[in-house]
Design a protein that fits this description.
Elements lengths: L1 H7 L22 H43 L11 H9 L3 H19 L1 H4 L8 H11 L4 H15 L5 H11 L16 H31 L7 H22 L2 H9 L1
């Protein structure tokens, strides 16, 4: 209850260093009554742990997303010699360009929902990114906070949990779905960067395949029958299938000819 009150009051990540341990000296009553108090304390500890994990994830998303937004808006990745966000994300952040934009989107949505105190207080636990991404565009409407509160009350009245899917369904039922976008910002933009990323990954895959084929050639050069013929046959089928899929997707004449030969 204390953690949830702190979240509702705007403290996104309640202080984990203020535990409230059960005091053995304060326990009174029969053994059964004391057991009931101990079991209640155990359940409360689990609830507090879950709340702390959720709050920490929210804080991480907001802080990470805010930093990534500055990185993208100011093209700061070029300061390291990267010509695209895609290569910087892959080589420095060890994630994808799309995940960068998704984190930015989630952070913006969470900040919007947490700033709407009437909305955030209705949640029993801190809202997650999926819930926030449904409510944030509703909050941008005229009287948006009233509409978001209406959506949450509608769900609570029905006895359901305010999952992202339940929020979407309630928004649709109440006529607020036009505000909810489906694409992720940046996910379908800048085709040149996406092609660059795809080409880089294809080159890396080709290099890995070349190394794998060299190992196969070394194994075959030994001139012995594979210890596990069925597995060797399955491995060959996997390589052939991968070549055919690549040829079909790239639609390159050379690739198609090689795949047909295989």
């Amino acid at each position: 209850a204390a953690n949830r009150a702190a979240v509702a009051a705007g403290d996104i990540a309640p202080d984990p260093f203020t535990p409230q341990p059960l005091d053995a000296a304060a326990l009174t009553g029969t053994p059964a009554e004391r057991l009931a108090l101990v079991e209640a304390a155990l359940r409360a500890a689990d609830d507090h742990a879950a709340d702390s994990v959720k709050a920490a994830k929210i804080r991480w998303t907001i802080e990470k997303g805010a930093a990534l937004k500055i990185l993208v808006d100011q093209h700061l990745y070029t300061a390291r010699g990267h010509t695209s966000l895609a290569t910087y994300a892959d080589e420095v952040l060890h994630t994808s360009r799309d995940n960068v934009y998704k984190t930015i989107e989630a952070a913006d949505a969470l900040r919007t929902v947490l700033a709407a105190t009437r909305v955030s207080k209705i949640f029993d636990t801190p809202p997650n990114a999926s819930q926030a991404k449904v409510l944030a565009p509703v909050l941008a409407l005229d009287s948006g906070e009233d509409k978001a509160v209406e959506i949450l009350i509608d769900i609570k009245t029905s006895g359901k949990k305010p999952t992202a899917s339940a929020l979407k369904a309630a928004a649709k039922r109440l006529g607020y779905t036009a505000a909810i976008p489906t694409p992720t910002p940046g996910a379908d933009t800048d085709d040149a960067q996406r092609r660059t990323e795809a080409n880089r990954k294809m080159t890396a895959a080709a290099d890995a395949a070349e190394r794998a084929l060299a190992l196969y050639e070394e194994a075959l050069a030994l001139g012995v029958t594979p210890a596990h013929p069925a597995r060797a046959d399955a491995d060959l089928a996997r390589l052939t299938r991968a070549g055919r899929v690549l040829a079909k997707q790239t639609r390159l004449p050379g690739a198609t000819t090689a795949a047909e030969r295989a």
